[in-house]
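Inputs:
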Amino acid sequence: MARYTVLKTEGRARRAEFETVHGTIQTPVFMNVGTAAAIKGAVSTEDLENIGCQVQLSNTYHLHVRPGDELIKSLGGVRSFMSWKGPVLTDSGGFQVFSLASIRKIKEEGVTFNSHVDGRRIFMGPVESMRIQSNLGSTIAMAFDECPSSRAGREYVEASVARTTRWLYRCRDELSRLNLLEDTVNREQLLFGINQGAIFDDIRIDHAKRISELDLPGYAIGGLAVGETHEEMYHVIEQVTEYLPKDRPTYLMGVGTPLNILEAVERGIDFFDCVYPSRNGRHGHVYTKKGKLNLFNKQFEADSSPIEEGCSCPACRRYSRAYIRHLLKAKEMLGMRLCVLHNLWFYNHLMGDIRKALDENCFASFKKEMTESMSEEAGGRG
Amino acid sequence: MARYTVLKTEGRARRAEFETVHGTIQTPVFMNVGTAAAIKGAVSTEDLENIGCQVQLSNTYHLHVRPGDELIKSLGGVRSFMSWKGPVLTDSGGFQVFSLASIRKIKEEGVTFNSHVDGRRIFMGPVESMRIQSNLGSTIAMAFDECPSSRAGREYVEASVARTTRWLYRCRDELSRLNLLEDTVNREQLLFGINQGAIFDDIRIDHAKRISELDLPGYAIGGLAVGETHEEMYHVIEQVTEYLPKDRPTYLMGVGTPLNILEAVERGIDFFDCVYPSRNGRHGHVYTKKGKLNLFNKQFEADSSPIEEGCSCPACRRYSRAYIRHLLKAKEMLGMRLCVLHNLWFYNHLMGDIRKALDENCFASFKKEMTESMSEEAGGRG
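Outputs:
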């Protein structure tokens, strides 16, 4: 079992360590999203090591569809496959099944759907998700859940959450069984449960209580940043974290902007992931402590300064805004890569600054300062 | 003036050094093609340093059209722009003007054509090309020439070559003038002349003699690998190198496969450039000492070995054929990048092996060994 040790607190914000079989994670942490076992934007695992990434996140659905989890198992699991020595978290596939694939049918055992790659009919439920994630051999496996729309009606959400609870028991039982097998890639694979309930406080809280009963090594809050307002999101986090075990890490799935992260840390969140830094980077949108810049803008045409003065990322160490803008305009892949590297560095180092502020008991003033200097950005789970 | 020092010879093959204001080049050398001031495939200048690149080549036409040579001059020249400390060679734009752009009119002073980016009407001739290359501030500027088709008739080629000779005088005079100006980026910029003449021996030889009279710091053989056979190409090289100055480096433009390079070194060539390694890499075709592999092939699906056993390139050091194949199939940019890095490493290190063989007086046996182990590949200037 992984050990979660709280080192410092400031209000509800927690500075902690999470020890896993693949290394100790310093939290709060941002997990870098490598959907298909690679960060989009030609970022290699060597790059990940150089930009301060602690945890890499890969997508179960994508890897199941291509190249296949059996293949990855035969090559030693996803960490060996992509040559990443640190911890890996895999999502359950649920989010992608419900958003990307064309769904045929939901039943108690899972979902029948068509692959977005080749249209092939696939069945995935809690048992299948655990088997796939076990084949991938990630450090942390996520429970298979349904993520209802933030606009779904109460009745739908209630039924969906009840099924997600039943699915969690199936997940736990199946992963326990798999972890005992001789040829399992990572026999110490951890399961995190996921809280759902859209924006209904009572459903969220009731669900948080129910999943806490399983005493899992960690819990996530899912179904946020899918269309609700930031205020609704912060409210749900505040409500739910009260009812999740205090001695376990909490992961806010798919969130978010730097400001979202600061707000969520304040409300007790430890783990984050989001496609923003890589997706924005591929579009030439780069983060600075004074807000985002769009490097396509004409104003950067002859700008010999780095993306952010004082930044030591692989892009800012050598290249000017003018050069990167030229690469983006000329559709040179290097332009995207440099922006993605900068953005991931920015996110990973923001988390480092947050941890340092918590270590030094000055998170509140750090948050205030950052919030004032950065302009607000759009939300979304991605 | 740059100094070319022959260190060893074996038959007509030469192992030499070429000292420039931006560093000493060990020859024979392969120049890595960064068309728009970046190697395609998300390869950074930092990567170039790590894969053994000595000289980076950029394209005058592309940089003139976008982002503009005046802009690059204002940012300190192309070396400063792309953060590359070593020598840079710029082509003259002639090849692209005659192949990429839609030509409106050729006259004595140059060519009117439409930009391939925005259709804008542009005039470029020897004087314009020198001004642009001076703005780019490359180490070596290439003369503005016309590269007639290998299938062009004798009459056309004769007239074209005579004009290319006249253009060379204009280039020399203009670059001499520019190198005296106070605000010139690189006042020690070198001019290489270019031999043309399609596959007509007498025109080629006569042209080689004429351009040799200018006593330039280096000479190139252009207009090869544009459709003629390998035997015709080797024959032209043999004929022409006899009549170019022996105390100057010779550059075979746009060539070629590893076997082409071995044959050309044997015939006295010092400088090479070719888009093959980067273009092939982007298509998943990778070089090994036993020939090329297509990593899209199913046979590599579960292959845990590196592209080439024993290779120390950034791709082979960490990643398997199976992983890279997955990335290529999933259209992850990282797949292209790893293949391009491997291929450029392969080319740069092939040149290192050639130099070592010449140093040790065993080029003939090295060439025989490599030729036997590698299978023949297609030609083309690209």
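Remarks. The first strand of chain B starts at residue 3 and ends at 10. DSSP finds 14 helices and 16 strands in chain B.
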